[in-house]
Write a structure and sequence with these properties.
Elements lengths: L12 H18 L5 H16 L4 H21 L7 E5 L9 H15 L3 E4 L5 H9 L4 E6 L17 E4 L2 H11 L2 E4 L4 H15 L8 E4 L6 H14 L13 E3 L2 H10 L4 E7 L2 E6 L5 H10 L4 E9 L13 E7 L4 H12 L5 H6 L16 H4 L3
Parallel strand pairs: 1-2, 1-5, 2-3, 3-4, 5-6, 6-7
Antiparallel strand pairs: 8-9, 9-11, 10-11
């Protein structure tokens, strides 16, 4: 039931009853634990497009976007437990260019850590990254363009390749499904994707993940970009001075890989419950460590202290084997929150803590795509 107890309805009791019956029949037959009320609202929205007299072109947009999102959810679902790296960079970079070589090396390095790789499925940096990851560990989220964008040989024809009409649905896939982001030198699209990821994290609209900007060895593409960010955005108060902690710049593949993997050395995830951040960890800080953290990060607290706690009832059985910290945090201080996570990741992990913790995503096996998924891809 929607918040406040009011149902989103067509308004015709007979049609509303038919919707309930139809959803119930499909859900019961599938055996899946689906949020029936949300599905009902989707169907009501579709019918209201008719009763509103929505223009055909707008109905087509809504229809295509919903189908693209459904396809995204279906393709990624079997791999939910595996960490994934989204790689961005120019489609125009030659494969023997140092930046492309670095993209290939980083992708291969992350597969050794148990990660998979998502790219835009095109040429240049994208092709290099997927070559490094290999077909089995690759996803392609391809955008239909009138030029320069067709699926590269590594991912072409694979069941994990999705073709998008709209950039905005494609961006949902990149950000929603990734546990880390790597950006190599690129054009407008690369900057758009990088800035959008930073904006979504800064504003709390997306989960906090590590973002690395990777230059070719000895390059200054991203360091000059950082000079602009620090010299204008931070200097003029257009971003917080700590927002620069949301990204890491390097020209070394091993440093980039360490930044990505070490983000999850102790930290697992964060969930917001009743306005408080619940931070899930493999090992909680001891009394002395907690006191140090409270002293260092008192400026980001709206009230109270950082506390160790048991899983909250609102979380259900989600990651029940992990430890928790809870804090009432000023959500404008996301850069400082990232610094807190870095400090939590520096805490030692003893064997007892690791054994008692819930399995981490990279510890779980890659699951096969459901039977028949490839044939259904373009329906």
């Amino acid at each position: 039931m929607p918040r406040g107890g009011r149902r989103y309805k067509v308004g015709d009791p007979e049609i509303d009853a038919l919707l309930d019956e139809l959803i119930g029949r499909v859900a019961d037959a599938s055996g899946e634990d689906t949020d029936r009320e949300c599905v009902r609202q989707i169907m009501v929205t579709g019918l209201r497009l008719v009763s509103d007299g929505t223009a055909a072109r707008d109905v087509k947009l809504a229809n295509s976007a919903l189908k693209e999102l459904r396809q995204t959810f279906r393709v990624f679902e079997p791999y939910r437990a595996i960490r994934k790296l989204s790689v961005f960079g120019s489609a125009r970079t030659d494969l023997d260019h140092p930046a492309a070589v670095a993209a290939s090396a980083l992708s291969h390095r992350m597969t050794e850590e148990g990660w998979m790789v998502i790219t835009g499925a095109g040429d240049g940096i994208m092709r290099a990254a997927q070559r490094g990851a290999g077909r089995d560990a690759s996803f392609g989220v391809n955008i239909q363009l009138p030029f320069e964008q067709r699926a590269n040989p590594t991912i072409a024809g694979d069941a994990k390749l999705i073709n998008y009409r709209y950039f905005f649905t494609r961006k949902v896939a990149f950000v929603k499904e990734s546990h880390g982001i790597a950006l190599f030198p690129g054009g407008f699209g690369t900057h758009d994707e990088g800035h959008e990821a930073l904006t979504l994290i800064q504003t709390g609209k997306s989960a906090l993940v590590p973002i690395v900007f990777v230059d070719e060895p000895g390059g200054n593409y991203w360091t000059e970009w950082r000079d602009y960010v620090v010299g204008h955005l931070a200097r003029d108060g257009l971003i917080s001075e700590h927002d620069t902690s949301l990204f890491f710049i390097t020209d070394d593949v091993e440093e980039a890989a360490s930044e990505l993997a070490n983000f999850y050395a102790n930290y697992h995830s964060t969930r917001w419950v009743n306005g408080r951040a619940v931070v899930r960890l493999r090992r909680a800080p001891n009394v002395e460590e907690l006191a140090t953290l409270n002293e260092k990060y008192v400026s980001i607290l709206d009230e109270g202290e950082i506390e160790v706690c048991e899983p909250l009832p609102e979380e259900g059985d989600e990651f029940s084997g992990l430890r928790r910290l809870v804090l009432s945090m000023n959500r404008r201080e996301i850069g400082r929150f990232r610094e807190l996570i870095d400090d939590l990741n520096r805490l030692g992990l003893d064997e007892e803590a690791v054994e008692a913790a819930a399995p981490m995503p990279q510890d779980l096996p890659v699951l096969p795509l459901p039977e028949g998924a490839e044939e259904e891809r373009d329906k």
